[in-house]
Every structure is written in C-alpha cells, then in structure tokens.
C-alpha cells in the first residue's frame, strides 16, 4: 500500500472537463445545444468563442472555449 497521494492531472483542471483536443464546430454546437449554423454565425459576427483556421477547417481551443463561458457567466451576473 502506498502512502503517497496521487495528484490530479493539472491539465484536467485547466481543461475543466473539456476534451484534450481541438474542438470542431460540430463539437461547439453539441456542447451549447445550438444549431451548427448558429456556431457559424457567432464566428462571422465574432460573438462566440474564438476559433481559428487550420487550412479550410475551423477549430476551437478548449481553454478558449472555457474562458468564453467564464466571461459570459460573469457578464450575465453583472447585468442581473
């Protein structure tokens, strides 16, 4: 029996339950339960989580998505 406590993976805290890979627009639509077209509109209007292009594909960094959610939560609390 080991007395050493296992430390949680610090990246798991950073990811906060998000996948350890870049997210697709379909992932974002599923995550927020919105139509895929809404995700594309957010990108065009620059109102949703920041995405970036890899060739012809759009991807989202999970940490940027987490920061976007946190920012939206705090903005809603201030407005309420």
SSE map:
Layout: H1 10-15, H2 25-32, H3 36-45, E1 51-54, E2 57-60, H4 62-79
Antiparallel strand pairs: 1-2
Helix pairs in contact: 2-3
Work out the radius of gyration: 16 Å
The number of helical segments is 4
Low confidence ranges: none
Distance between the termini: 52 Å
Q: Work out the number of β strands.
A: 2
Order of helices and strands: HHHEEH
Order of neighbouring strands in the sheet with most strands: 1-2
Report the portion of residues in β strands. 5-15%
Mean pLDDT: 83
Q: Structural class, please?
A: mainly alpha
- How would a crystallographer describe the biggest sheet? 2 strands, antiparallel
Give helix % range. Answer: 40-55%
Oligomeric state of this protein = single chain
What shape does the CA trace take? globular
Describe this structure in words.
With 80 residues, the chain is mainly α. It is built from four helices and two strands, in the order H-H-H-E-E-H. Strands 1-2 form a two-stranded antiparallel ribbon. The protein is globular.
Question: How do you describe this structure in short?
Answer:
This protein is mainly alpha-helical. The protein contains four helices and two strands; from the N terminus they run H-H-H-E-E-H. Strands 1-2 form a two-stranded antiparallel sheet.
Task: Record keyword descriptors for this entry.
80 residues, 4 helices, 52% helix, globular
